[in-house]
């Protein structure tokens, strides 16, 4: 079947890595279902992708912080008779700060978005993919899932879940004709840090940030090749490799130092 008939669904598709992945899919003539909260941004992105690439784009405005929202996404896709060949779970947020001081309701929302939505959409579409013997899933995780994350404890925890979950279901479905790929970016130049109130972190303020288009390209190539996991960027590959041989408490202490605010004078 030519790509012209195929659909890809991308969450978090109006900015950052999700937007760049949507463009790559459209360039390869996949029709798109794009999911985000902001209706005007969604409409603008849909119009841009349609005009630029000549593909059909179905915008779905859904707040994936809400438990029912991913189920509603699936139901609307089914109601329109759309068969999703590629699922990209990208939407995710974090929260910066000491865990004892951060807002628990904000963190429960993040867990729902970063874990709940991934699990629901993956289950719904993976069942269909396995039944027909074809399909591809890209789970946007993070190198944060490989490292303890002081000052971002919940975010790092959610990404550890995503990577572990992806590895487990990949094994379960390995002979099904479906591939499931995890993309692990590092610090990337997106809106993530503003939403996480994290712009004053040394990691963000003083460190280099990857180009989301480059990260998306790494993930997209790995998805097409059916790879299991891709760490985007040499520096991130090195960081993950080193963290695997250094004791976790030292990794955590180092991450804590890197994550502190730039105006924090304490050593």
- Please identify which CATH superfamily we are dealing with: NAD(P)-binding Rossmann-like Domain
User: Number of helical runs?
Assistant: 10
Rg from alpha-carbon coordinates? 18 Å
Strand-pairing-aware structural class: alpha/beta
Task: Estimate the global geometry from the Cα principal axes.
Answer: globular
CATH architecture field: 3-Layer(aba) Sandwich
State the assembly state of the protein chains.
single chain
Under CATH at level 1, the class stands as Alpha Beta
Overall pLDDT level: 91
Strand order in the largest sheet: 3-2-1-4-5-6-7
Low-confidence stretches: none
Strand content: 5-15%
User: Topology as H/E string?
Assistant: EHEHEHEHEHEHHHEHH
What percentage of residues falls in helices of 4 or more residues? 40-55%
Largest sheet: 7 strands, parallel
CATH fold naming? Rossmann fold
Family: Belongs to the short-chain dehydrogenases/reductases (SDR) family.
Organism: Hymenobacter chitinivorans DSM 11115
Protein name: Short-subunit dehydrogenase
Keywords: Oxidoreductase
């Amino acid at each position: 079947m030519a790509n012209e008939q195929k659909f890809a669904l991308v969450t978090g598709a109006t900015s950052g890595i999700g937007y760049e992945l949507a463009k790559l899919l459209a360039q390869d003539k996949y029709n798109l279902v794009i999911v985000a909260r902001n209706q005007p941004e969604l409409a603008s992105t849909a119009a841009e992708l349609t005009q630029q690439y000549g593909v059909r784009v179905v915008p779905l405005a859904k707040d994936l912080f809400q438990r029912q929202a991913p189920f509603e996404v699936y139901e609307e896709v089914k109601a329109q008779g759309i068969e999703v060949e590629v699922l990209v779970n990208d939407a995710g947020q974090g929260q910066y700060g000491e865990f004892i001081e951060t807002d628990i309701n904000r963190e429960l929302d993040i867990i729902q978005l970063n874990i709940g939505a991934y699990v629901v959409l993956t289950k719904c579409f993976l069942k269909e993919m396995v039944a027909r013997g074809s399909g591809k899933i890209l789970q946007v995780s993070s190198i944060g899932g490989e490292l303890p994350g002081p000052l971002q404890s919940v975010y790092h925890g959610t990404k550890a879940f995503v990577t572990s979950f992806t590895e487990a279901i990949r094994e379960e479905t390995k002979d099904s004709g479906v591939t499931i790929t995890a993309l692990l970016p590092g610090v990337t130049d997106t809106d993530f840090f503003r939403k996480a109130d994290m712009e004053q972190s040394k990691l963000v303020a003083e460190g280099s940030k990857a180009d989301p288009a480059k990260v998306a390209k790494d993930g997209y190539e790995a998805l097409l090749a059916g790879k299991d996991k891709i760490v985007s960027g040499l520096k991130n590959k090195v960081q993950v490799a080193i963290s695997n041989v250094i004791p976790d408490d030292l990794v955590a202490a180092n991450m804590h130092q890197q994550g502190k605010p730039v105006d924090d004078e304490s050593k």
